[in-house]
């Protein structure tokens, strides 16, 4: 009797995982009506939302970063607010402020645009540090303190930030503490020549209508399924090994974790000044589970970890001056670590 019950439960779980996969496919299809060739960007956004984290989009102007976020808000039926970050922005413009009412002689709270399910922080590196720090409490604890009171943000709460990596005039680099609050950092690439031709022929993409494909209930459903995705101890050890090998105090033990070929080439670690924190390990585990969910699987494979490792770690590594001098990027180092680390 118990065996037949387990079979039924497994069949039900399989059906639910397939439903999640179809929801993801529906989102890709709707987004494809406006966005050409940037489906990995939408996948990253969906991954962040299902995993319960925030996403930083980085790319040069004109690559549809903002359009991708607005398209996602249109297909997801979430409450959406946009904050255009500028050098003269104030923290109260983000979180809200206290307003004195003369009639009652009391202060009332005027909540800022951060009180939404989906918040677009457009060109986040154009605001000074005090404005960027106004998001720290919101992103980490899903709450905002205004005056003496603390207010909970609506659930789900999701920050999507964009930034331009090439412009230096009038920009302020994000501090490491805030970068670490982002679950993922997605690099938005140039389209191929074929994709760009399709973009030019298609006219104004913002005018194209899209349907709702992902509701709050669908999000809750996918998050419930995410809890059923299993990650073996061997995979967890693999994740922890990838993260800890980036830390300066762990380099003396690196030769014990990388493969035989890697022991002769672990000098690439000199390019890392500060490695990733345990938050990176947690994030990589969660994102690997979402990657498995995308495939309709209930278990994590090493390939899932490899797929999400650059997204999770590229903004969490502080590189040395030597790396800049040699033209070494965080993605280069992550690829090297993945190539040398033994796969379970």
The percentage helix is 40-55%
- What's the average pLDDT? 84
What's the total helix number? Answer: 15
The number of domains is: 2
- Relative strand content: 15-25%
Envelope shape = globular
**Overall CATH architecture of the largest domain:** 3-Layer(aba) Sandwich
Low-confidence stretches: 1-9, 260-264
CATH class type of the largest domain: Alpha Beta
What is the CATH superfamily classification of the largest domain? Answer: P-loop containing nucleotide triphosphate hydrolases
Write down the CATH topology of the largest domain: Rossmann fold
Q: Which tags fit this structure?
A:
344 residues, alpha/beta, Helicase, Ruva Protein, domain 3, two-stranded antiparallel sheet, 15 helices, disordered N terminus
What does this structure look like?
There is one protein chain. With about 350 residues, the protein is α/β, with parallel strands linked by helices. It is about 45% helix and about 15% strand. It has helices spanning about 1-30, 40-50, 65-75, 90-95, 130, 135-140, 175-180, 195-200, 215-225, 235-245, 260-265, 280-295, 300-315, 320-325, 330-340; strands at about 55-60, 80-85, 95-100, 105-110, 120, 145, 150, 160-165, 180-185, 270-275, 320. Strand 6 (about 145) and strand 7 form a beta hairpin. Helix 2 (about 40-50) crosses helix 12 (about 280-295).
């Amino acid at each position: 009797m118990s065996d037949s019950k387990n079979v039924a439960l497994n069949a039900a779980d399989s059906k639910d995982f397939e439903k999640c996969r179809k929801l993801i496919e529906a989102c890709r299809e709707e987004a494809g009506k406006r966005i050409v060739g940037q489906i990995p960007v939408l996948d990253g956004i969906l991954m962040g939302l299902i995993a319960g984290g925030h996403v930083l989009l980085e790319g040069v102007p004109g690559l549809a970063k903002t359009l991708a976020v607005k398209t996602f808000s249109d297909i997801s039926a979430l409450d959406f607010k946009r904050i255009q970050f500028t050098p003269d922005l104030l923290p109260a413009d983000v979180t809200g402020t206290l307003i004195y009412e003369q009639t009652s002689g009391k202060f009332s709270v005027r909540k800022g645009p951060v009180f939404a399910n989906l918040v677009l922080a457009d060109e986040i590196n154009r605001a000074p540090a005090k404005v960027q720090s106004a998001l720290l409490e919101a992103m980490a604890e899903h709450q905002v303190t205004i005056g003496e009171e603390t207010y909970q943000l609506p659930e789900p709460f999701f920050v999507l930030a964009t930034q331009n990596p090439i412009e230096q005039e009038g920009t302020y680099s994000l501090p490491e503490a805030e970068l670490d609050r982002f679950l993922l950092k997605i690099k938005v690439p140039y389209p191929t020549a074929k994709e760009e031709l399709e973009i030019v022929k298609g006219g104004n993409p913002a005018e194209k209508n899209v349907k709702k494909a992902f509701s709050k209930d669908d999000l809750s459903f996918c998050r419930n399924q995410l809890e059923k995705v299993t990650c073996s101890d061997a995979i967890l050890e693999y994740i922890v090994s990838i993260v800890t090998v980036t830390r300066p105090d762990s380099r003396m033990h690196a030769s014990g974790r990388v493969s035989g070929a890697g022991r002769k080439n672990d000098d690439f670690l000199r390019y890392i000044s500060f490695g990733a924190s345990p938050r990176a390990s947690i994030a990589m585990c969660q994102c690997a589970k979402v990657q498995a969910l995308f495939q309709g699987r209930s278990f994590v494979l090493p390939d899932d970890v490899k797929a999400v490792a650059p997204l999770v770690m590229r903004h969490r590594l502080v590189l040395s001056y030597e790396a800049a001098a040699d033209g070494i990027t965080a993605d280069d180092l992550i690829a090297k670590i993945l190539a040398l680390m033994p796969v379970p």
